[in-house]
Design goal:
Blueprint (H helix, E strand, L loop, with lengths): L1 H20 L14 E11 L2 E2 L3 E7 L5 H5 L9 E9 L2 E8 L5 E9 L2 E8 L4 E11 L7
Antiparallel strand pairs: 1-2, 1-3, 1-8, 4-5, 5-6, 6-7, 7-8
InterPro entries: DUF3617
Keywords: Signal
Protein name: DUF3617 family protein
Protein backbone atom coordinates (compact mmCIF):
# COMPACT_ATOMS: atom_id res chain seq x y z
CA UNK A 1 0.00 0.00 0.00
CA UNK A 2 2.84 2.41 0.77
CA UNK A 3 4.30 1.87 -2.69
CA UNK A 4 1.05 2.79 -4.45
CA UNK A 5 0.60 5.86 -2.25
CA UNK A 6 4.19 6.87 -2.95
CA UNK A 7 3.60 6.34 -6.68
CA UNK A 8 0.48 8.52 -6.52
CA UNK A 9 2.37 11.32 -4.71
CA UNK A 10 5.22 11.18 -7.25
CA UNK A 11 2.68 11.28 -10.11
CA UNK A 12 0.95 14.35 -8.65
CA UNK A 13 4.27 16.12 -8.08
CA UNK A 14 5.27 15.38 -11.69
CA UNK A 15 2.07 17.05 -12.95
CA UNK A 16 2.50 20.26 -10.94
CA UNK A 17 4.88 21.92 -13.46
CA UNK A 18 2.45 21.16 -16.30
CA UNK A 19 -0.42 22.79 -14.43
CA UNK A 20 1.69 25.86 -13.74
CA UNK A 21 2.35 26.56 -17.44
CA UNK A 22 -1.05 25.57 -18.81
CA UNK A 23 -3.02 28.77 -19.49
CA UNK A 24 -6.38 28.99 -17.76
CA UNK A 25 -9.20 30.54 -19.79
CA UNK A 26 -12.35 31.67 -18.03
CA UNK A 27 -15.56 30.26 -19.43
CA UNK A 28 -17.98 32.93 -20.64
CA UNK A 29 -20.71 31.04 -18.77
CA UNK A 30 -19.12 31.83 -15.40
CA UNK A 31 -19.65 35.57 -15.83
CA UNK A 32 -22.25 36.93 -13.40
CA UNK A 33 -24.72 38.42 -15.89
CA UNK A 34 -28.06 36.96 -16.91
CA UNK A 35 -28.88 36.34 -20.56
CA UNK A 36 -31.86 38.23 -21.95
CA UNK A 37 -32.88 41.63 -23.29
CA UNK A 38 -30.68 44.42 -21.94
CA UNK A 39 -31.24 48.18 -22.04
CA UNK A 40 -27.93 50.04 -22.14
CA UNK A 41 -27.76 53.76 -21.43
CA UNK A 42 -24.54 55.46 -22.53
CA UNK A 43 -23.91 59.04 -21.40
CA UNK A 44 -20.99 61.11 -22.66
CA UNK A 45 -19.53 63.34 -19.96
CA UNK A 46 -18.12 66.82 -20.61
CA UNK A 47 -16.85 69.15 -17.89
CA UNK A 48 -18.28 66.84 -15.22
CA UNK A 49 -21.82 66.85 -16.65
CA UNK A 50 -23.41 63.86 -18.36
CA UNK A 51 -25.37 64.29 -21.61
CA UNK A 52 -28.78 62.74 -22.18
CA UNK A 53 -28.43 58.97 -22.51
CA UNK A 54 -28.08 57.18 -25.81
CA UNK A 55 -30.25 54.07 -25.37
CA UNK A 56 -29.26 50.77 -26.95
CA UNK A 57 -31.14 47.47 -26.70
CA UNK A 58 -29.55 44.11 -27.28
CA UNK A 59 -30.20 40.47 -26.62
CA UNK A 60 -27.53 38.60 -24.67
CA UNK A 61 -27.32 34.87 -25.32
CA UNK A 62 -26.45 32.26 -22.72
CA UNK A 63 -22.66 32.00 -22.53
CA UNK A 64 -22.03 35.15 -24.60
CA UNK A 65 -18.52 36.59 -24.45
CA UNK A 66 -18.60 39.32 -21.75
CA UNK A 67 -16.00 41.41 -23.59
CA UNK A 68 -18.00 41.71 -26.80
CA UNK A 69 -21.30 41.98 -24.94
CA UNK A 70 -20.72 44.33 -22.00
CA UNK A 71 -17.59 46.25 -23.06
CA UNK A 72 -18.70 47.15 -26.59
CA UNK A 73 -19.95 50.63 -25.63
CA UNK A 74 -16.46 52.10 -25.33
CA UNK A 75 -16.27 55.51 -27.03
CA UNK A 76 -14.43 56.06 -30.32
CA UNK A 77 -15.02 52.54 -31.61
CA UNK A 78 -12.32 51.62 -34.07
CA UNK A 79 -10.12 54.45 -32.83
CA UNK A 80 -9.17 52.75 -29.56
CA UNK A 81 -7.52 49.48 -28.65
CA UNK A 82 -8.30 47.65 -25.41
CA UNK A 83 -5.31 46.32 -23.47
CA UNK A 84 -4.60 44.94 -20.00
CA UNK A 85 -8.04 43.29 -19.83
CA UNK A 86 -8.94 41.97 -16.38
CA UNK A 87 -12.03 39.86 -15.83
CA UNK A 88 -13.68 38.69 -12.65
CA UNK A 89 -17.04 36.99 -12.22
CA UNK A 90 -18.84 40.34 -11.76
CA UNK A 91 -16.54 42.91 -13.38
CA UNK A 92 -14.45 43.82 -16.40
CA UNK A 93 -11.61 46.35 -16.39
CA UNK A 94 -9.31 47.41 -19.20
CA UNK A 95 -7.03 50.16 -20.47
CA UNK A 96 -7.65 52.07 -23.71
CA UNK A 97 -5.02 53.32 -26.12
CA UNK A 98 -6.61 55.69 -28.62
CA UNK A 99 -5.40 57.29 -31.86
CA UNK A 100 -6.95 60.71 -31.22
CA UNK A 101 -7.37 60.86 -27.44
CA UNK A 102 -5.35 60.45 -24.28
CA UNK A 103 -5.01 56.96 -22.79
CA UNK A 104 -7.92 55.96 -20.57
CA UNK A 105 -9.18 53.20 -18.31
CA UNK A 106 -12.60 51.60 -18.38
CA UNK A 107 -14.63 49.27 -16.18
CA UNK A 108 -17.98 47.55 -15.86
CA UNK A 109 -19.19 46.43 -12.42
CA UNK A 110 -22.26 44.27 -11.81
CA UNK A 111 -24.08 44.82 -8.52
CA UNK A 112 -26.47 42.00 -9.49
CA UNK A 113 -26.91 39.62 -12.41
CA UNK A 114 -29.45 42.09 -13.86
CA UNK A 115 -27.72 45.47 -13.42
CA UNK A 116 -24.34 47.07 -14.00
CA UNK A 117 -22.64 50.43 -14.13
CA UNK A 118 -19.37 51.45 -15.69
CA UNK A 119 -17.31 54.30 -17.02
CA UNK A 120 -14.34 55.40 -19.06
CA UNK A 121 -11.92 57.73 -17.30
CA UNK A 122 -9.13 59.62 -19.06
CA UNK A 123 -5.55 59.36 -17.87
CA UNK A 124 -5.99 62.77 -16.22
CA UNK A 125 -8.85 61.46 -14.06
CA UNK A 126 -11.79 63.01 -15.89
CA UNK A 127 -14.80 60.80 -16.56
CA UNK A 128 -15.45 60.63 -20.32
CA UNK A 129 -18.33 58.17 -20.61
CA UNK A 130 -20.79 56.65 -18.15
CA UNK A 131 -22.85 53.52 -18.81
CA UNK A 132 -25.66 51.67 -17.06
CA UNK A 133 -27.24 48.40 -18.08
CA UNK A 134 -30.49 46.79 -16.95
CA UNK A 135 -31.84 43.38 -17.93
CA UNK A 136 -35.53 43.67 -18.78
CA UNK A 137 -36.80 40.28 -19.95
CA UNK A 138 -36.02 37.09 -21.77
CA UNK A 139 -35.32 37.44 -25.49
CA UNK A 140 -38.31 36.33 -27.53
CA UNK A 141 -36.84 36.23 -31.05
CA UNK A 142 -33.54 36.62 -32.91
CA UNK A 143 -34.52 40.20 -33.79
CA UNK A 144 -34.58 41.31 -30.12
Amino acid sequence: MKLSLLGWVVGVIALIPLAAVTPVHADAGDFGAMPGLWKIQVRHVAHGKADAPEVQWHCVDEGADPWTTFAAWTPAAGECTATDQQRRSTSLAWKLTCKTAAPASAHVDFDSAKHYTGSVTSEGGSEVTRVEGDRYAACTSPED
